[in-house]
Amino acid sequence: MANNFPRLPPSGIKVLIVGAGFAGLSAAIECDRKGHTVTLFEKSDNIEELIRIGDIISFDPNGSKAFERWPGVVDQMEAVARQTTWLDLYHHQGKFVTRQSFAEEKIWGRRINAHRGQLHNIIYRHAVARGIDIRLGQRVQDYFESDSPAEAGVVLATGERITADVVIAAEGVRSRGRKIVLGFDENPKSSGYAVYRAWFPADRIKNNPVIKHIVENGDTHQGFIGPDIHFLASSIKNGTEVNWVFTHIDDGNIEESWQFPGKPEEALKYLDGWCDVVHELVKATPEGRLIDHKLVYRDPLPTFISPKARIALIGDAAHPFLPTSIQGASQSIEDGVALAACLELSGKENIPRALRAYEKLRYERVHKAQAMGPKTRNRWHKADWTQVWKTPEMIHLVREPWLLSFDAEKDAYERFWKVVEEGEKEKGSVKETSKL
Ligand SMILES: Cc1cc2nc3c(=O)[nH]c(=O)nc-3n(C[C@H](O)[C@H](O)[C@H](O)COP(=O)(O)OP(=O)(O)OC[C@H]3O[C@@H](n4cnc5c(N)ncnc54)[C@H](O)[C@@H]3O)c2cc1C
């Protein structure tokens, strides 16, 4: 490897990773840190396209902890991230309600909110600089695993079969890896919600008297709360770019896509009776910059690992999140951190033990974090305004230390042997019961 990034001595473990989203790239970098050898397959052959798509994405301190361990990465991210430590919340008809400060969360780590493509590009470039073998334009068609020989592998669209010690399936919400893990095909379903979202240059609004305040004093962050809808807007890069998103009820009759174009006039229909600020923001959106993003959802999976425990699902492939949890991206990073550490601790001869421990470390935490999505959404969409005006903090985002001040690497190092022991005991009791 032609670079001097700190990494543990070679572990001899060969890892195949499918998908170069945040989950796949983070797992690749973490495996490289631990001395494992990685080959990553990404179906898209155009990384420029991948980093163009999307808009605002949020990493909380529990996700950004990993970035701090990757030399240079977090500073590059800070340079493109929103510089706010608060969220101003308004009633949907325009009256200011409360400012929620995040300043005290600094002790937990950094919050990084920025354009998804720009952050993705920073991580991608870091993975390339580390010398990780990333193969673009390679669609994985199928997965396989066996005990003898002890291996797992992927089949590419070209028909080529590639084997390794372990496979990490990080191919997002439409994961094919789920089939081998679950034993059957399972389709995502509509969450009943969709998101209109946009990102564009601040020039579009800087002379508009109703909304210029959003961009004329550097970065800002505001939310408007109404029945069944919340509308978030922010300015970024010293007020030179602006973005907004709003979640609304939807019949979900078309497939999820990050590129499905939306029309301002359609979006405005949902905002009848809402204040001028949100109307002007939607109207100012340039053609082609408005995305109508249908949110799909899946029921929690019974497991994240394959029957022979050589294939693991991570990120959205294992657990898609609703945006109001603000945790989907951070949890996808935690997964890769924990899995790489489990492989390190378990060693090449004990890959299934590593994967079982990974699942035990992650399963409960991920599902607890997932539950934050509907919790925040209901807090906003079903707000009892008589109470909110008396106690505005009722509509603050729930920010809890168990979730946000968490270090997935430390947790894996501390709890690995404990969860292995628990797993062994459970296996023992299953055998005992089956003998009866
Ligand atoms: C194009 C795009 C834009 C997004 N924009 C936003 C945004 O603006 N804001 C936000 O909050 N979230 C966004 N998300 C979702 C967000 O990135 C994820 O929810 C989160 O980061 C978890 O990422 P992930 O790596 O698990 O999944 P994903 O980000 O979905 O990444 C999965 C990767 O796997 C690749 N892949 C899929 N199938 C195969 C296959 N068979 N073989 C090889 N490769 C495969 C995909 O091309 C993709 O690069 C976006 C996702 C995508 C794919």
TrEMBL record:
- Molecular function in Gene Ontology: FAD binding; monooxygenase activity
List the keywords (alphabetical).
Answer: FAD, Flavoprotein, Monooxygenase, Oxidoreductase
| Domain of life of the source | Eukaryota
Keyword set includes Nucleotidyltransferase: no
Family annotation (InterPro entries): FAD-bd, FAD-dep_Monooxygenase_BioMet, FAD/NAD-bd_sf
The record's section on Gene3D superfamilies has: FAD/NAD(P)-binding domain
Residue ranges of every copy of the FAD-binding domain listed in the record? 14-368
Family that this chain belongs to: Belongs to the paxM FAD-dependent monooxygenase family.
Q: What is this protein called?
A: 6-hydroxynicotinate 3-monooxygenase
Organism source for this protein?
A: Podospora fimiseda
